[in-house]
Structure prediction request, 420 residues.
Amino acid sequence: MINRSDQPQGLITPGQRAEYMRQGNASAVLRAVLAYGPVSRAEIARHTGLSAPSVTKLTSTLIEAGLLGELAPMEPTQGRPRVPLRVDPERTVALGVHFGLLRTTFGLVGLDGRVLVERELAHGGAEELTPARLAARAAEGVRTFLDEKLAGRRLVGTGVSVGGWVDGARGVVVEHGPLGWRNVDLLAELTGKLPGPLVLEQTVRAIARAELWFGAGREVDDFALVFIGNVLGAAIVVDRTVHRGPGAAAGGIEHLPVTDDPAVRCPRCRTGCLSVAAGDLALVAEARAAGLLDSAPSGPAGGSLDLERLVAAARPAGSGSGDERAQRLLRRRARRAGRAVATLVDLLNPSRVVLAGGILVAEEYLDDLRAEVAERSHRGAAVAEDIVPAVFGARTLVRSSAVPVLERVITEPFTALGLL
Ligand SMILES: [Zn+2]
Prediction:
């Protein structure tokens, strides 16, 4: 393997340069198959601009490496039968591990982004929430899981995701309020306990990367993912890369002001910001205060359960037209979220805004959100069609966690598999 960081550009030998070019071309082939597969070699040549002989050579290398597979030949309309190729969904897998507030979730994800099998470990009491305890339990759970489920597949590494402020490049959780973590060197804690190589990513950015490769971002090179749920955050994708900025602090949208209502004031930023005006927790608290939900939160997972109950109350059922107060709350939340989205739209002009989080539970209000953006953005009404829900719903954490590892196989296949 070539250590690029230690090697000045001029010292790369012609042979090495050729290898890099071959790897770049192999990646282009993989991407074409991911985007358009199953596809024939001729179609890959058309999509990538590579010559037919190059595609033939590269595809056989990728088949040998277990990354591509052939399907049964299609009936030829003329000439030789065309053999469609697809990304082999089973042979090469990554492990995805998500550390949540209530549980650790992990599973195996195929190179096509499909979750093959997953498992959950509920956290114990508050004393279990230290990084060391969570890491040790996850390691034990993963070991048993892999013994039972890996079944001869090649594991290319482990992607770990966690919420809060995370500097993935340094492997550090800078701050995670609900877990009470500050400056936790999580990658160091996990090294040797989970199968390497290990990659750490913040949850919202990991979701954006999953959407980028396998979901709503597949056909665009830039988009903004806006997560509005129990937590709030954005991930900005430019040229198919998530922007992080110094200290990986990009994407903090929770204190964007979204209402002028003097009754809604955030203790931290002193405005009616997204977190106090449009987060799931704020919405549920408001519904409870209005008598729309029982006064007691329904357990530690109350946020999402209560949100579902609120949405159910608002929905017309049978001959009833649904609770109007619940509808008003949900519409207002969508409008307020729309105000924040409008700010992002005008600032970044993304090709798409991909929405994720609890805001998707109340799908029927997304048009209210779109209308608010259209009214406020200088892009006007046309912007509405570029605001889309994330393709992967709530069960996306395992997939998202694994994606940074899969991404490496897709972009640098030979390096990732140790073939270079
Ligand atoms: Zn605030």
